[in-house]
Amino acid sequence: MTDPSPIPPEIFDHNSAILGRVGSGKSFAARGIVEGWLAAGRRVCIVDPTDVWWGLRANAAGDGPGFPVVVFGGEHADVAIGERSGARLAEIIAERNLPAVVATADMSAGERHRFMSDFLGTLYRKNRLPLHLVLDEADDVAPQNPLPENRRMLGDVERIVRRGRVRGFRVMMITQRSAVLNKNILSQASVLVVLRLPAKQDRDAVEGWVKGQADDAAAAEVLGSLSRLQRGEGWIWAPEEDMLVRRTFPPITTYDSMRTPDHGQAQGLPTGRARPTLSSGELGDLRALIEFASTSDEAAKNSPVAVRAELEAAEQRGYERGAHETRAQLLAPLRDIIDDGLRTFRSLADARDALAHAPHDHSDSLPPQVPSLKEQLSPPIDGGASERTGSVAPAGTAANGALPSSATKMLAALASGMRLTWAQTATVAGLKARGGHFNTGRKALRDGGYIEEQGTSITATDKGIEAAGGRRPIPANRAELLGWWRSALPQTAGRMLHQLYRQNGKWIRKERLAEFLGLAPRGGHWNGAISLLWQNSLIEVKDDQLRLAAELRPREG
Predict the structure, then answer these.
(1) Residue 507 placed within a domain
(2) Residue 328's pLDDT is what?
(3) HEC per residue, 282-328
(4) CA distance linking residue 263 with residue 273, whole number of Å
(5) How many structural domains are present in the chain?
(6) Which domain covers residue 180, as residue numbers?
(7) How far apart are CA 516 and CA 499, in angstroms?
(8) 339: closest CA among 529, 496, 490?
(9) Fewest CB within a 10 Å sphere: which of 143, 159, 251, 543?
């Protein structure tokens, strides 16, 4: 039996989350709650990546006014925005009582995330009065597994949710994908509104919230009902208010702009939308402020100095690319000798650092005897024809030549018997962990019984080690393991790894790391190196800081 009593509005003076699959009525429940805030004159800002909240502007029939909300961005915008508008728009919202919908559906994923990073960071710094911040599709700005370039945005969301209450924030998170909403963010919700969730992984996310917030004894009834709830029916759980009720949410009072059109129909537009409580002159001022923020940034980007610098950088990139191709063609016979010399030098440098930074750990203080990757990925010369000609057969090639080259390279990378992920195996083998070449090699190793998989890690079987030409030496300590990885990575990533080792496991800001390396902390070369280290689980990333993964750090004495 559901409870028809009204929802006490004070429970949403805390952070809250509304969870429910598509079609469960989650958006209507959220819309009804927001309508109550607007009717009470509260400050409200809705982040809308789907462009559906503009319906707040008209009544349910679409022939009269609704609430005086200003729509920024999207198809129904009062004021247009772009990816460079985030900081200025946040300042406007923080300084005024201006109910707002911020629609970002017209932006690409990259543009949206750059906009949200500027918007959320500035809003946190500037806002000081009570503000209901609604994050629709919250998993987009607070994903469980963010890409490196989105960690700043996730950090801003977490800061608002964790510490924003003293600055006036009451955050409502709405998602149909509770399994991929960041658990650190979800755990900060004091109120949970949950509608139908047929997928087990989404119900598991609710169970995780229960363990941190509420009484386990009450969980069985709620969790057991989630797959059977009717549309518009859900639970409201507010442990701090001693509230757990099951109810059917009432119809919304504004225009249903979230309705999915039937076949052969288009989404109708209301005929009587409300205008914001601003004059045309005030709206013009808002547009001017937003446009100035965007055009001034664009002008700076396109100034003669900036254009000339970009042309010079492009010319330099072209020169470097041409030089690289020429070197590859003309100096191929010397490449292995040069690379082996560089790798030996790096190994000696790592040994020196191990002695300097881990004086109490004798096993890590010994000079590492790290064979180069070329030596590790090539079988011993057998004294036959290959020795006389100076050529070496590819490592791991089966007797009948059946294994593809990508498989032999990955098999040789695994020949030490260490457990690696597929991404790590591809990196050590000099491959990209995607595409047909990699997938063909992976399938051959699996089908042939050359590898054994356990969770996300793999190791070579005895058959695989034999096919690779025998077992390679395994790094004996952390310094050797560091040198082993450095020899497998591109130069910039290897230098990063070396400098992070010298930090003794401490966090270091990206800008500081760039200073040590003499690099600029931006651009594809820099970001690509960080992404490669992160994908291979060699570093940890937190906001704008990095540190070495635990298994590579110097041991404490």
Answers:
(1) no
(2) 54
(3) HHHHHHHHHHHHHHHHHHHHCCHHHHHHHHHHHHHHHHHHHHHHHHH
(4) 25
(5) 1
(6) 9-259+269-299
(7) 8
(8) 490
(9) 251
Helix, strand, coil % over all residues of the chain, rounded to 5:
50, 15, 35
> Which residue matches tokens 């330099």?
316
Q: Are 336 and 533 in contact (CB under 8 A)?
A: no
Is 16 part of any domain?
Answer: yes
Q: Given CA atoms 143, 147, 150, 151 in this order, what sign does their dihedral have?
A: positive
Instruction: Please report the sign of the dihedral spanned by the C-alpha atoms of residue 66, residue 70, residue 71, residue 76.
Output: positive
Query: Among 181, 77, 61, which residue's Cα sits nearest to residue 69?
Result: 77
The dihedral region occupied by 168, where left means phi > 0, alpha psi between -120 and 50, and beta the remainder, is left
Under 8 Å between Cβ of 412 and 429: yes
40 phi and psi, to 5 degrees? -85, 0
Cβ-Cβ contacts under 8 Å for 459 (sequence gap 6 or more): 414, 417, 418, 419, 420, 451, 452
- Please provide the distance, in angstroms rounded to a whole number, between the alpha carbons at the two ends of the chain: 63
Burial class (CB in 10 A: 0-12, 13-18, 19+), 389: exposed
What pLDDT is stored for residue 48 in this prediction?
A: 96
Indicate whether 471 belongs to any domain. no
169-to-38, 39, 166 alpha-carbon distances in Å: 16, 19, 7
**Cα angle for residues 327, 331, 337 (degrees, 5° grid):** 120
* CATH code, 155: 3.40.50.300
CA distances from 107 to 112, 293, 372 (A): 5, 17, 47
Q: Residue 20 gets which letter from DSSP?
A: -
Report whether 152 contacts 544 (CB < 8 A). Answer: yes
Low-confidence ranges of the chain (pLDDT < 50): 1, 296, 298-301, 303, 307, 311, 315, 333, 357-400, 557
pLDDT of 339 reads 58
3-class DSSP state of 132: strand
Residue length of the chain: 557
Angle at CA of residue 502, ends 498 and 507, nearest 5°: 100
Quote the pLDDT of residue 191. 93
In whole angstroms, give the CA distance from residue 130 to residue 134: 13
The widest CA-to-CA distance across the chain, in whole angstroms, is: 91
| Residue 486, amino acid | R
Would you tell me how many other CB atoms lie within 10 Å of the CB of residue 118?
21
pLDDT the model gives residue 367: 36
Q: What does R_g of the chain's alpha carbons equal in angstroms?
A: 29
Confirm whether 485 is domain-assigned: no
The answer to whether the CB of 540 falls within 8 A of the CB of 547 is yes
Nearest to 484 by CA among 503, 470, 467, 497: 497
Cβ atoms 3, 235 nearer than 8 A: no
C-alpha 58/C-alpha 252 separation (Å) is 11
Q: What angle do CA 437, 443, 445 make, to 5 degrees?
A: 105
Burial class (CB in 10 A: 0-12, 13-18, 19+), 307: exposed
